[in-house]
Amino acid sequence: MKNQHLIVLLFLFLLSNKIDSQTFKTKLTDHTANVEAVAFSTDGKSFASGGWDGAVNLYTFDSTGFPILKQSFTGHLGAVISLNFSKNGKYLVSCSKDYSSRVWNIDTPAKSKVFNLHLEPVTASFLDPTNKFLISSSLDGTIRTTNLNDAMKSKILKLSGPIMDLQISKDLKFYYVAFKGGTIKKIQTGGKNLEISSFSGHTDDINTIEISPDGNFMASASNDKTIIVWDLNSGKAHKTLSGFEWKVTSLKYSSDGKYIIGGCNDGVAKIFDIETGKVVTDLKEMGKNVRDVSISRDGSVAIIATHMDAQKFGAILYNTGIMTTPLPETGADGKAKKTVAPAASKTSKPSKSTVKK
Questions:
Q1: How many domains does the chain have?
Q2: Quick one: CA dihedral 186, 188, 192, 196, positive or negative?
Q3: Which residue from 16, 103, 205, 337 lies 20 to 30 Å from 128 (Cα-Cα)?
């Protein structure tokens, strides 16, 4: 009878705490202001968060899966908008409202570099597969390809209108550029700003875009309350994911390309099965505004950047209720194949713009 009583108590405890596949896991409170950006490393063993305090925090996991703050990188004078790990996991790239991008050397922080290249906030920054070039876009309407060892060799591609987000094709031949107003354009990375095609379907601003792991699809999140999945081979909409009640601010593919997690301005994140278009996991009670989302390589954990009340700053980790089988990475040894950095139309020296907070 005593053992039966203990079992009942345990059941009631689990029930009262809603311990299931979609449960809250851990809240991180190391930032001193709201968190704006999050990202998992490609191997899933670490993740990072960036906030309005200008800090970039790097975390790993202990043997029980609990996150541990490994390193805090400081230097940005404005909110960190976006984070991207390099393919080999040795670098972390951040971009900010202070008009700069920073390439953080994870093992040797003293070798980290800052690039003040744009005239307005930077909306996307990432390294090419060789880790020799920084590719960045900005609300100033430009895309820059910068040699990490010589920023004076920055190449610039001038486009018309503020750039909300930027992706590059797997073969590095094309940019996919999201512009304010709801249009996405496919543009050659070299030459004379040659537009190949455009993607029209959203009825409001697009906040972010991402290319699928296999390179065949692209997803876009919009203020029109939807995520559209585009077939890059045909240029047509493949699937529309709906169910949000407000602006969709962020999205990420799972590593196998079967799921998409999207974050909404109403404090909700949803995980969709792309094939069926149905929501498989609803993540709630996260605050008033989801700003960014990311999902671990095995799919089991999602990290959510959200704006919360005072003294509750941070990102939240959730169990997702799904598991994924990651697509194989190119180069099992972690080394990138020899590639040529995307060309651009004009060589320009970095601007001496005033950094704003």
A1: 1
A2: negative
A3: 205
